[in-house]
Automatic annotation (TrEMBL):
Cited InterPro entries: MurNAc-LAA_cat, N-acetylmuramoyl_amidase_3, SPOR-like_dom, SPOR-like_sf
Keyword annotations from UniProtKB, A to Z: Hydrolase
Protein name listed in UniProt: N-acetylmuramoyl-L-alanine amidase
Domain SPOR, residue spans: 186-222
Transmembrane segments: none
Membrane recorded as keyword: no
Entries under Pfam families matching the protein: Amidase_3 (PF01520), SPOR (PF05036)
SUPFAM superfamilies according to UniProt: Sporulation related repeat (SSF110997), Zn-dependent exopeptidases (SSF53187)
Amino acid sequence: MKIMLDAGHGYNTSGKQSPDGLREYEFNRAVANYAKLLLENYKNVTVYFSHSDQRDVLLTARTDKANNLNVDVFVSIHANAFGSGAWNDVGGLETYVYLSRPPEAIQLAQKIQHNLVLATGLENRGVKTADFHVLRETKMDAVLVECGFMTNRREAGLLRTETYRKAVAEGIVQALTEQFKLQRKDNAPKVFKVQAGAFERERNAKQLAARLKSAGFDAYIE
């Protein structure tokens, strides 16, 4: 099983940043790195990157690499934006497939969308179609994931955190394991999640999450 992870854009891509200066590529590459580490725990899986930390990679170079390597699936990771770049309230998650709606790509997109909503608690904006280059020019099943809005102040704050980036990577990998029936290696470390509390008031949940983080745990609120 060969999987290509595509961290959209690059460090030098102009305009792809939040109003307070978070570059989209910083988030995209972090999620790709976490996802690769998780996927390395599965049998017969090879992970490739289409992007580079040294330079911006053209879209044609990304899809050519995927096609030449004959990978089985292509997952493009992004953060969204709305409007002219100013803060606004538009938010949530969405996953894209090509206009022809290839059945297996739709199945994977639905699984990714479902798992990301569960992992993050953000609004479900659904699975959509688009004529994006990375969806159109790849010969294998391909999906593009928008993991939150950089122009939404709350979501931009989440995009900066390692906890949220890990949660997104876990959601993507969980979808891949479900879609392709991936089997964990015998010596792969197991990960467990524990619900530490349930509260009627958000501020109480935030207080507990802060105490857990100060104690060295990855904590998030759903």
